[in-house]
Design a protein that fits this description.
43% helix, four-stranded parallel β-sheet, single chain, Rossmann fold, alpha/beta, 15 helices, 3 domains
């Protein structure tokens, strides 16, 4: 079967099974095109929780499917590829977090949503790349913040907070290894282009940006800005949606290497197989789900 035929069959199965397909902006174009909901990670899970679907098929990575299970315990959550992981989420284990909490007993643990359910469950509150500054500054009774697992997100937030922020050593390789020299080279060919960067990039890269924000915030910035050219400093999968929403504008990747290979693992065939065989089911135990959900709910109350 070709792409179109597989897409049609997937859509029919979704309808027959009262299922919903979620896709992140970093997924393959052909997957994004047939998603019921296309968004960033936490927004996807929140949207799915509000639907009456019995089954959630998550075209993303494991921590995203876990978040869907946390927020929708009564629904069946399917992850088409079990090997679709996240190297950022893998940079911290529970034993490492516990050791750091013992080292900084007065620190509030603020955990980026790009983390495992287990780490969320042992956190005071969660945050996203869009609300990290607001979340940290909302903790008025804590002057010390242990920010995990993305060190670049923590350093970005520290620019806008008077609190002592202790960054974890983790990072997203897609964003962390974007170099200022690459930006300079692209800007030399596109001197009028605005540069939008994700806060998972390094401080030196963020210093060069005209705008810093999450994937959704970058989409909004582009739509509301009159410039005709944009250099995009995040995973190249977002280009598909940017071009669809802004047909008269030009988008240039900050680097051709900004590809999340885990996000790209899920194919239409994988989604079809997941629906046919009902695999792979992601279920977060209640022991983990309840405290993880509390950390997420605290974040939502602030947001």
């Amino acid at each position: 079967m070709n792409f179109k035929q597989i897409q049609t069959r997937i859509r029919k199965l979704l309808e027959d099974k009262n299922a919903i397909l979620l896709a992140h902006y970093y997924e393959r174009d052909e997957v994004q095109d047939i998603a019921d909901i296309l968004n960033d990670s936490l927004a996807l899970s929140m949207s799915a929780a509000r639907t009456d679907a019995d089954i959630i098929v998550f075209a993303g990575v494991r921590f995203m499917a876990e978040s869907a299970s946390i927020l929708s315990p009564g629904k069946t959550v399917l992850l088409p590829r079990m090997d679709a992981g996240c190297s950022l989420a893998d940079t911290i284990t529970l034993s490492q977090l516990t050791a750091e909490q013992q080292r900084y007993p007065d620190a509030a643990v603020v955990t980026y949503v790009n983390s495992s359910a287990e780490i969320k469950a042992h956190s005071d509150i969660c945050c996203t790349s869009a609300n990290v500054v607001r979340i940290i500054n909302s903790l008025t009774e804590r002057d010390q913040i242990l920010a995990v697992p993305d060190g670049n997100i923590a350093r970005y937030a520290a620019r806008f907070s008077s609190k002592e922020i202790i960054p974890w050593k983790g990072y997203c390789p897609v964003h962390h290894f974007l170099r200022p020299s690459e930006i300079e080279e692209v800007q030399a060919h596109h001197p009028e282009a605005k540069f939008a960067a994700h806060p998972e990039c390094t401080p030196k890269v963020l210093d060069m940006a005209d705008f810093v924000g999450s994937t959704r915030q970058i989409l909004k910035y582009v739509e509301e800005t009159d410039a005709g050219e944009f250099i995009i400093g995040t995973e190249i999968g977002i280009m598909h949606e940017l071009k669809k929403r802004n047909p008269g504008k030009t988008f240039i990747p900050a680097s051709d290497h900004m590809i999340c290979h885990d996000m790209k693992k899920i194919t239409l065939d994988d989604i079809l197989t997941a629906l046919l065989d009902m695999k792979h089911v992601i279920k977060v135990s209640e022991e983990v789900r309840v405290p993880a959900n509390q950390a997420l709910e605290k974040m939502l109350q602030v947001s």
